[in-house]
Amino acid sequence: MKVSAIRQGNTGNIPCLDVLLKRGASTESRHRVHAVVCDSKGRILMSAGNPNYESYIRSALKPFQALPFINSGTCDIIKCNEKSIAIACSSHSGSKEPAREAFKILWNAELDVNHLQCPIPPGKESPLQHNCSGKHSAFLATCHKMMWPLEDYLKGNHPLQLEVSRKIAALIGIPSEELIAARDDCGAPTYLLQLNQMALLYAHLGESNQPGFERINRAINANPNLIAGEGLFDTEVLKRAHDQLISKGGAEGIQCISRLGEGIGLGIKVEDGSKRAKHAVAIHLLKQLDWLTPTAVKELEEQFLLLSPGVQLEVYGELGFQEN
User: Fold this and answer.
1) CATH dotted code for 3-316
2) What pLDDT score was predicted for residue 121?
């Protein structure tokens, strides 16, 4: 099935997933969640809710925004390593280690920190402490190597951003002019996509049939602490996945996961943007899909579903096969 057919297909026949916050025996809050599993040919394999639900992909886009850094040869020319690739894909904690890795990209490219256009986080001292500084450093290094302007590297019509948009469009099978872009909180463009298109991107990533994807997957799994941080969701999933998954979240309830070697991607969107709900659903679906061991699932449940004594998240519903 072509992606264009999916984009105009049915809106799903499986109910949304529900995440309930229980305080004691009573429900205090409820979140509605959509989810879809696609293969690298764009076929929807399973879903819950609306697989065509539209949302901005936010930071789940970062592994694909890192492709020009690799494919242009920049990473190799400036002698960066897997940590540099990992930090380019990360939404890091802003601690010393990830900030240092972002700085190394700029140092190797002979660029000044002042070129960074990601904001300085509240209470911090440097844009290097912004959770997107690795992505921005890789952007700048690529622009420097390609002799593209540095001062406007975040504009949608900049050669770097045009390269990213062309790659995203090619992967999901639409003309690049159909992509709808908006400014992410760090200043870089992000794209309005259907949930099945996000899952398709991660199916391509998991298939690893391109050298850039293979290097990104190796770097992420070799450096899980750089992707988010100790105790944070993506890092904790990666640590337990034994090089079988890529997990990358985005703001406003976006979570994407690749099953490596199988060309399968999972996309999750919480309607109200809840972070806790997307984590709960991701664990629930990783268990249903048998993508993690029971021990790993239990550990994640204890860490992310038990919020405090007497307060926990419960997920209701399952992925199902769509009717033709």
Assistant:
1) 3.40.710
2) 96
